[in-house]
């Protein structure tokens, strides 16, 4: 799950309002989808993790051969054991062990449905998605899915048609291009040209050499 970053922290002085404001250790789940940069949090007690595991096992047990394989895998997972003494459950070493084990458990369950869904039968896939993502994490499935990659050809933004650039015309009249033996005024050859020799606009050899 390269697109998901998941880790846990513990609040040892939390208050469980659902159970008469009972003081307990609450495990805070931090989940970030790296492909969308969306972040989510959920607060659960150890008993909630324990119940989640048992519910999944009960729902997939004996369904089919493929479900039986995943049942054995989940059952054999090193899930942290329960403690009979509340003071022992609040010890720092116990909490640290539970944080590591519960975090790995969530990652393993998510990998079942995100990385290899075709290895599961439809029943197991739907069960884990519903119990883990929707009910336990209280998220939509789209929240934990990677953002679809956009093909470069589809990512080209359409730009409006640029306005045609009008050619810049010079205000000064353009001189006509003529041959070297042609007068630019009358467009006749210099031999037959009758233009005045004193005309400053005349360019070319002088016809009257005696002036």
UniProtKB/TrEMBL annotation:
- Region Disordered, as annotated, extends over 148-174
What GO molecular function terms would the record report? phosphatidylinositol binding
Matching SUPFAM superfamilies: PX domain (SSF64268)
- Give all residue intervals belonging to the PX domain: 5-144
Q: Tell me the Pfam families matching this sequence.
A: PX (PF00787)
**Family matches, as CDD domains:** PX_domain
Q: Which Gene3D superfamilies match?
A: Phox-like domain
Q: Which residues form the signal peptide?
A: none
Please identify the protein, giving its name as recorded.
PX domain-containing protein
Lineage per the UniProt record: Eukaryota, Sar, Stramenopiles, Oomycota, Saprolegniomycetes
